[in-house]
Amino acid sequence: MNYIHGLIHPTPFTDDLNSTRATKTLLFIILASFISVDLIFSKKNDFDLNLKRIFIFLTIIVISSYLYALGRSDGPHIKNSFGYPLILIFIYISYNFLLIISNREKYLTYFISLLFVITTISSFKIDYQNLITFKERFISYVYQSDEFFLNSKEFDLVSELKPQINDFKCIQLLSNDAALYYLLRKKSCTKYYYVWNSSSKNIQKKFINELKNTKIIIEGGKKNNWDVPLEKKLFLIYDELNQKFTFSKQINDWKVFLR
């Protein structure tokens, strides 16, 4: 996936795009790692064994989660990895804070702890009505019809195409809209149901070999402005499409091809 979807990671402490965010995240990961290493070799009894294990586990999560950002090194993916070291460091500081005040008067300890909890909870925007009605809303959401989740173009496609493909055992997409298999209630003719990551020449040749029994291909759909168009990425498969299949119809952003 890194070869298909990867971006060059911004160099820390430079003017590269997202460098500041990456630098901040990496520094927090290093700090979180130092905390765990210090706890492992510490001879103090302030942290019991189970708590140390939790910190070691969190550190593994902290480091592993950044592999996500190394694969796709843009702002949102780097940002998604920042929460884990933040959680570890927050727990560490909070625990040490509670240790300090626990040595003081009992009621002062309770008061400060309660104030700390209230402050933390109040910092989150929580709609308590949503908590109360969660079950009803969840059931309502689950039992919504397919059409509820579709825009007008998608609805037109499914409505028009679904009755016309009853006689086909399977369909093949040349589209990133993989949900169409579910919406049309048809299985994929090949194992390459999500073609976005099928771009190497070797995989494309295997893809073409599996297309032998395919009678219908649906092409097009949503365009990703951050990615290479499928017709350029899957150039061997599109050559096969043009040679072995005939254009049948166009429904909004999708084209239907028949063998």
Features:
259 residues, alpha/beta
Order of helices and strands: HHHHHHHHHEHEHEHHEE
Gross morphology: elongated
> What's the Cα radius of gyration?
27 Å
- Whole-number mean pLDDT: 89
Largest sheet: 5 strands, mixed
What low-confidence regions span 5 or more consecutive residues with pLDDT below 50? none
Major beta sheet, strand line-up = 2-1-3-5-4
Strand content: 5-15%
Task: Give the count of helical stretches.
Answer: 13
Number of domains: 2
Structural class, by secondary structure, is: alpha/beta
Query: How many strand elements?
Result: 5
N→C terminal distance: 31 Å
* Helix proportion range: 55-70%
Strand-helix topology:
Blueprint: H1 2-5, H2 19-41, H3 49-71, H4 75-80, H5 83-102, H6 106-122, H7 128-132, H8 134-142, H9 152-161, E1 170-174, H10 180-183, E2 187-188, H11 201-210, E3 216-220, H12 230-233, H13 235-244, E4 246-251, E5 254-258
Parallel strand pairs: 1-2, 1-3
Antiparallel strand pairs: 3-5, 4-5
Helix pairs in contact: 2-3, 2-5
